[in-house]
Amino acid sequence: MLENARKVLRISSMREQVTPAEWQARIDCAACYRLVAHYGMADMMANHISVRVPGEEAFLINPYGMMYEEMTASALIKVDIDGNILGKPDYGDFDFGINRAGYVIHSAIHGAKHELDCVIHTHTWPGMAISSLECGLLPMTQTAMRFARISYHEYEGVVLNTDEQTRLIANLGDNNAMILRNHGLLTVGRTVGEAFNALHRLELSCKAQIAAMSCNTPLHQVPQAVLDATYQNYQPNVRRPYGVMEWPALLRMLDRLDPSYAD
C-alpha cells in the first residue's frame, strides 16, 4: 500500500466546488500540462501553464511540487491577480503552493491581456539554445516563418520582482509568442488550444534551426517578399483560429493514453 501511495498522489476532487465553466478550464489546463509532457517539453516540476478562470480576475496554475505528467483538473491552484490563493484541493501529506517566478510572469499577462486565456512558458533545450543565440529565431523554414516577427524580452535574472512585469508586457506586445533571452519560450492564446499550437510550432522551429546550423554549411535564403507573404498567411485575420481543429483530437489522444487528467 505504501509503495502504491508513492506512485500516485491522491487528490480530492474539486469538481463539485467550482462552476462548470471553471471545471472545463481546469480540464483544458490539465490536458495542456499532460500534452507538454507527452511531447517532451516539460522540465520536471519547473515552468508553468496558466488558464484564466472564465468571468473572474483569477487564473489556474500548477502546484509547485507536482510533475506535468501527473497533473489533473482538481490538482490546479486558483490564484487571483494579486497572488492570493482562492482555491486548492487537499493534497494529503503535501501542502503545495505556487512558484513565485511563475506567478510574476503569468499574472502580468493575465492582468494586462484580458483577451488571452492561456499562457505557457517552457525551458526546453531547443528553446533555451535559441534564446541564447544573438541571431535569435531565424525564419528559415515554413514553420518558423510564422514567427518572423516574434517578440524578445531581455534576461534580467530569475523573474521574482513585479517591476519586471511592465517590461514583459511591453515586449510581448500583440504577439502570441516571445523568446525570453537566455531563458526559454513563452506563448499565449485566446484558448488553451491556440497557445499550445503556438508552443508546439515554435519548439519545432527551434529544433529545425539548431539541426540546420549544426551542419556547418550555409543556410538557403528565402526572398524577403516570400517571407513576408508567408508570415501574413499565418496571421489570425486570414485563417481560422489555431487549435480549433487539433485540440479535440489531442484530447481524444489523451483519453486513450490516460484519461485521469480530467479528474
Automatic annotation (TrEMBL):
GO cellular component: a single term: cytoskeleton
Gene3D superfamilies per record: Class II aldolase/adducin N-terminal domain
What sequence ranges are listed for the domain Class II aldolase/adducin N-terminal? 27-210
Matching Pfam families, A to Z? Aldolase_II
List the SMART domains: Aldolase_II
Q: Which GO terms describe its molecular function?
A: actin filament binding
Q: Which family does it belong to?
A: Belongs to the aldolase class II family.
Q: What is this protein called?
A: Ribulose-5-phosphate 4-epimerase/Fuculose-1-phosphate aldolase
| Species per Swiss-Prot/TrEMBL record | Muricoccus roseus
Q: Please name the taxonomic classification of the source.
A: Bacteria, Pseudomonadati, Pseudomonadota, Alphaproteobacteria, Acetobacterales
